[in-house]
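User: quick one, sequence for these C-alpha cells?
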C-alpha cells in the first residue's frame, strides 16, 4: 500500500508533531475482529512537500523520527517536491538517504508515486 500526505505552509513543532502522530498511527497494532475494515500498513510513505514554505528545527526532528519509524516498519519513505532550502534543513538534521537507504528525495509527487508503484509491482510480481 502507498500512503501519501501532502504537507503545506511552514512546518513547526505543533503541526509536525501532529504529522508524526498520524504517521505513527498507520503502524499501530490494533486488536480488531475484522481486518477488512483496516487499511494495510503502508509499504511506501510519500510526503509531498511541494507547497511547504519552510521548516524549523523541531519539525526536522519530527521528520527524523518519521524516517526511523519507517525504517523499523519496513516502509520506504519518499519525500517529494521539497525546495532546496527545506531539503538542506532536513539533511542537516539527519534526514538523508546516505544514512537511511530506505528513504529518498524525489523531484515531484508524480515521480514519487511512480517509484512506489514500481516497487509494489516488484513486490507482488
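Assistant:
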Amino acid at each position: 500500500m502507498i500512503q501519501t500526505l501532502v504537507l503545506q505552509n511552514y512546518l513547526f513543532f505543533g503541526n509536525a508533531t501532529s504529522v508524526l502522530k498520524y504517521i505513527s498511527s498507520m503502524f499501530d497494532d490494533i486488536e480488531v475482529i475484522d481486518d477488512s475494515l483496516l487499511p494495510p500498513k503502508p509499504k511506501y510513505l510519500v510526503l509531498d512537500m511541494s507547497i511547504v514554505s519552510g521548516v524549523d528545527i523541531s519539525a526536522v526532528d519530527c521528520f527524523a523520527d518519521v524516517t526511523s519509524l519507517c525504517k523499523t516498519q519496513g516502509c520506504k519513505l519518499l519525500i517529494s517536491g521539497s525546495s532546496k532550502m527545506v531539503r538542506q534543513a532536513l539533511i542537516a538534521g539527519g534526514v538523508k538517504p546516505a544514512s537511511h537507504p530506505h528513504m529518498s528525495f524525489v523531484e515531484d509527487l508524480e515521480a514519487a508515486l511512480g517509484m512506489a508503484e514500481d516497487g509494489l509491482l516488484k513486490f507482488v510480481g
